[in-house]
Amino acid sequence: MSLAITLHLLAATTWVGGMFFAWMILRPVAVELLEPPQRLALWYRAFQRFFPWVWGAVVVLLATGLWMLFGVFGGMGGAGWHVHLMLVSGLAMMAIFLHIWFAPYPRLGKAVSAEEWPAGGRQLGQIRRLIGINLILGLATVAIASGGRFL
Question: Could you tell me which residue ranges the Copper resistance protein D domain spans (predicted)?
Fold first, then answer.
């Protein structure tokens, strides 16, 4: 059980922390210092490095979450409301990430390669909004996970 919790927390911290850094730190600095072509190239390259970590986090979160759900709680019936909410929010975050991965992210890469900056800007804007939603969901999930069983 302690291995599952540790891996689960590390995966969640990696994903949510990465989104927090991107939204709250990197984005304002990139807007302040870089012109749109350089900013779009920066974001695409940053996503190329971050998204494999997100894929890893998704796999670890699903595997360890289900391990704990069935191994510790004996299934959904034995889990508290906070576990149910965690599962729903986690699945929603994963669905949003999958949409980013399969839709605006590849289009951003094509736009950057073709130097089509307005099209790239639209794709980056969509990714930014979706990551913002995921960040809110992720922070809420962390709060639910850490305090839900005490309510």
Answer: 45-146
